[in-house]
Structure formats: C-alpha cells, structure tokens
Design brief:
This protein is α+β, with helices and mostly antiparallel strands and 176 residues long. It folds into 2 domains: 39 residues; 132 residues, no CATH class. The protein is 39% helix and 28% strand. The chain is built from 5 helices and 6 strands, in the order H-H-E-E-H-H-E-E-H-E-E. A 6-stranded mixed sheet has the order 1-2-5-6-3-4. Strand 5 and strand 6 form a beta hairpin. The N and C termini lie far apart (81 Å).
C-alpha cells in the first residue's frame, strides 16, 4: 500500500508549476488589457483642422462667395473680405464661423495671407486668447500636461481682389 502523505506531496509538487504559469498568464493578460485601453484621446489636432476647414469652406468664412449664383469658391480667398476682417473687428470670425461662447477657452488662430510683392495681411480668430496663449507655445518654454499646443498649416490659394486673381499662401498658426 502507498503512503497517502507521499501521494499528496507529489501532487502538490506537480501543482506548483501550474500555479506559477497561471499567475504569469494573468499578469500578461492584465498588462495587455491596460495597454490597449485608451483613457485619453487628444483631439486638438482635429479641432485645428476643423477650424481651418470651416474658415475655408464656410459661406461666412474667408473664401470668395458669389451671391448672385449662391456659390462658394473654396481655395479662392476674397481679399476685400479678408482685409475687412483683419482691419475692423478682430473677433468677427468668432461670432460668424465657430462660436464657443463669449469667453472662448478652446482655440485661437492667427491667419496670414501672403502674396508676392504685397504686404502680408493678418487676421485673428479669438485674438484675446491668442495673445495670452502665444508665449506658452514658444520653443523655449516647456509646458506640462494641459498646456496649450500649437499647430501650423499652410494652404496655397488664389486671391481674388476685385476682378484680379493672383496666387497666394494662407498660413494658419492655431493654438488650442
């Protein structure tokens, strides 16, 4: 007859590697789940692209809009409208294009229209916040989590000034 204690001890010795293997599998599963679960989604770059598209493809934006046929010409900037926006009310785009409320805490932009042999024309979206946030995105200043980020985009456009169409470059410096 076999000794019962010896049988139980042998079975326990066989269970130990199985327990270690099970623990290793559980840790691997937990690490895999934690790595694949997304807890934060950064949409700042997408918001800046939406702002650019709304400025370029909106009837109230900076693109040329022919009222007689109710057609918008994307990629053709209405120089008179752009100059009016840059000289008059610096917050006119805030009220007409994208409105995030009176105190816009979301996004600000500097839009520069460059043409060959002409002076640059600058317009702002949410100028008050742009002036406040711009020093935070300069290269020498480190910002932590929650600090503002800057995105730059350039679009080659046509500029319609009265009946003259010329080439131009539209630069967007967006802070959000």
């Amino acid at each position: 007859m076999h000794n019962k204690r010896a049988v139980i001890s042998g079975e326990m010795l066989m269970v130990i590697p199985k327990v270690f293997f099970l623990i290793a599998i559980l840790f691997a599963f937990i690490i895999l789940v934690k790595a694949l679960i997304v807890t934060e989604v950064d949409v700042k770059h997408i918001e800046s692209s939406i702002l650019v598209n709304r400025l370029l493809f909106s009837k109230n934006g900076i693109s040329y809009y022919d009222e007689s046929i109710e057609r918008l010409y994307p990629g053709v900037i209405d120089f008179n409208r752009f100059e009016e926006i840059s000289k008059n009310n610096p917050n006119i785009l805030d009220n007409e294009i994208i409105t995030y409320g009176v105190d816009n805490p979301m996004i600000a932009a500097k839009i520069t229209l460059k043409q060959e042999d002409k002076k640059d024309v600058i317009a702002y979206y949410n100028k008050d916040k742009f002036d406040r946030w711009e020093p935070r995105v300069l290269p020498g200043i480190e910002g932590g989590a929650g600090s503002v980020r800057a995105f730059k985009q350039q679009k080659y456009v046509l500029v319609k000034n009265e009946e003259i169409i010329s080439k131009g470059n539209l630069s967007f410096f967006i802070i959000n």
